[in-house]
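lol so apparently i was supposed to do this last week
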Amino acid sequence: MTDTSFSHAGGMSADEAKACCARTYQQDIVALILGDSYHPGGLALTRRLAQQLGIQPGHRVLDVASGPGTTAFLLASEFGAVVDGVDLGDRAVAMAGAKARDRGLAEQVRFHVGDAEKLPFEDATFDAVVSECAFCTFPDKPTAAAEMARVLKPGGKVGITDVALDQTRLAEELRSLAGWVACLADARPLDEYVAILAAAGLDTMHTESHDEGLATMIEQIDARLVAFKIAKLPAIEEIDFDLARRRTALAAQAVADGIAGYKLLVVAKR
Ligand SMILES: C[S@@+](CC[C@H](N)C(=O)[O-])C[C@H]1O[C@@H](n2cnc3c(N)ncnc32)[C@H](O)[C@@H]1O
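anyway here it is w/ S-adenosylmethionine bound
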């Protein structure tokens, strides 16, 4: 759905904000700073999510906003799932597909270009849907939740790990587009995610807090920014170093003040 009337931080339309988010996460500097996994808690949290979802060998799982594909590869290699990853970034999808071929997993893990708000799959296709650090960035969350419910088999589950925050207490600077892309500016409190998912027919079974994972990730981002600056890494010249450090400091403060956190949710299709 094209929503040109919906204005986001930086005055962008919903479509522009989504495209900007996808472009940002495809940059080489992002892979250098974030490593293999683009969400707080890394592989350990993905493993925990898969256990909570009860993923079994042969289950068909959809990873919405699959980014570098790390979540999808873990679900395939450690849990035996057959995984489809979908992401708006065509370069990210091509790179994840190349990794699947390199690892001999091309039959078990496939990546597709697509929008979370219009998933390119038939109804009732998947046993489980996962989405890590991405639901918060979707401009039309009710539509994204409805799409997850649509492609899920009856009784199937959705597992989400995501940034939750109290928008009313967020520093103005983090509401800008850079904050949006960094998963902060359109994140909502946990109970709002629960309500949006319930309205799509997805009832919450379980939630957990993993706020320390977000604090650790922010510390790691800041440490890598400094290390790359000292090493005079060419990619660091592409970003505004002082602004990036200022935003990591604001984000760290938001976590310390209990304004921002990282949550795990498991919901089931009614
Ligand atoms: C923070 S990264 C998380 C990637 C991955 N889930 C992980 O945890 O490693 C957010 C991802 O969401 C993708 N994305 C943003 N909006 C999207 C949309 N509307 N549909 C599909 N993917 C989207 C971006 O391209 C990016 O790869």
